[in-house]
Design goal:
With about 280 residues, this protein is α/β, with parallel strands linked by helices. Helices cover about 45% and strands about 15% of the residues. Helix 5 packs parallel to helix 6. The model has no long low-confidence stretch (mean pLDDT about 95). Bound molecules: NADPH dihydro-nicotinamide-adenine-dinucleotide phosphate. NADPH dihydro-nicotinamide-adenine-dinucleotide phosphate binds next to helix 9.
Length: about 280
């Protein structure tokens, strides 16, 4: 496993396991499988309604808590200082742990400054080791980084070969904030698993298109958290540290960038209305 050191000195695995859309009832089994496949970093969120399953797996897996890296996220409905503060304690209870390694604000909606202050406070109290944001596109990221005490350690954004986030990468670098990729496999969109360029490069190393795409992100310095409910795919997505892409291959893969989301446009009013609606409905 390779690690990076965040801007506050905390060490984080470059590769973790994502749990979005894993039903609550399957989460414990999936996370136990992931841990037995070698994953030590697990990404969940209040909004995934599966923190309890992650907590069950963490408490049963037999791996010391200090060797695991747990990330969760504050949902929009828990925005604002008081609600966020309570929700942090609730997340810890569901995750059966007295600290999380990384806590993020899931979306730049509701009172995220209040939520951020609650995270800063919880960090000082030892309940969180590092704090950051997610889905903060460059404009929102510059705003929050400009007015908070603790610079975000991480910004989790959609990143894969088709959305390489070039502009965001430059800005995050300036602030010393680590980029973490959500949907690093683009959930297979745009034919990622059968892409000819990825598969062609993979042939040289005996690797799949998925593995080449994930290795590309690691070599860009992006933390990744691929999700699968299948053990053999968890293993496939974990086998990334026994080959290295050449500079020429990296340049070739850079040309696959479409520079737009495969999922969602955070600048669109319709998407903003959707998130505001979802946040209110959950309150
Ligand atoms: P991914 O890009 O990780 O893709 C997951 C999909 O690809 C699943 O359908 C999975 O199927 C399939 N898959 C996985 N590996 C392979 C493989 N080797 N070959 C073929 N198919 C494969 O999508 P996610 O959206 O889950 O993103 C990863 C994580 O990022 C999430 O789980 C979550 O933790 C985080 N995330 C965060 C967001 C945010 O707003 N902050 C938004 C979205 C995700 P199957 O499970 O059936 O194997």
């Amino acid at each position: 496993m390779e690690y990076i050191t965040l801007n506050n000195g905390v060490k984080m695995p470059m590769l973790g396991y994502g749990t979005f859309q894993i039903p609550a009832g399957d989460t414990e089994r999936c996370v136990l499988d992931a841990i037995s496949a070698g994953y030590r970093s697990i990404d969940t969120a209040q909004g995934y309604f599966n923190e309890e399953g992650v907590g069950e797996a963490v408490s049963k897996c037999g791996i010391p808590r200090a060797e695991l890296f747990l990330t969760t996220k504050i949902w929009i409905s828990n925005g604002g200082y008081e609600r966020a503060k309570n929700s942090i304690d609730e997340s810890l209870r569901r995750l059966k742990t007295d600290y999380v390694d990384l806590m993020l604000i899931h979306q730049p909606f509701n009172d995220y400054y209040g939520s951020y202050r609650a995270m800063e406070e919880a960090c000082r109290a030892g309940k969180i080791r590092a704090i950051g944001v997610s889905n903060f596109m460059p404009d929102r990221f510059i705003d929050i980084a400009g007015f908070v005490e603790v610079t975000p350690a991480v910004n989790q954004l959609e990143v894969h070969v088709f959305q390489q986030q070039k502009a965001a990468r430059e800005i995050l670098k300036k602030h010393g904030t680590q980029l973490m990729a959500w949907s690093p496999l683009a959930q297979g969109k745009n034919g990622l698993f059968n892409n000819e360029t990825l598969a062609g490069i993979g042939e040289t190393y005996g690797k799949t298109a998925a593995q080449v795409n994930l290795r590309f992100l690691i070599q860009l310095g992006v933390v990744i958290i691929p999700k699968s409910t299948h053990k053999e795919r968890m293993e496939e997505n974990f086998a990334l540290f026994d080959f290295k892409l050449t500079d020429k291959e990296m340049r070739e893969l850079e040309t696959l960038d479409l520079g737009v989301s495969q999922f969602i446009d955070h600048y669109s009013p319709e998407v903003a209305e959707l998130f505001v609606g979802a946040g209110k409905a959950d309150q």
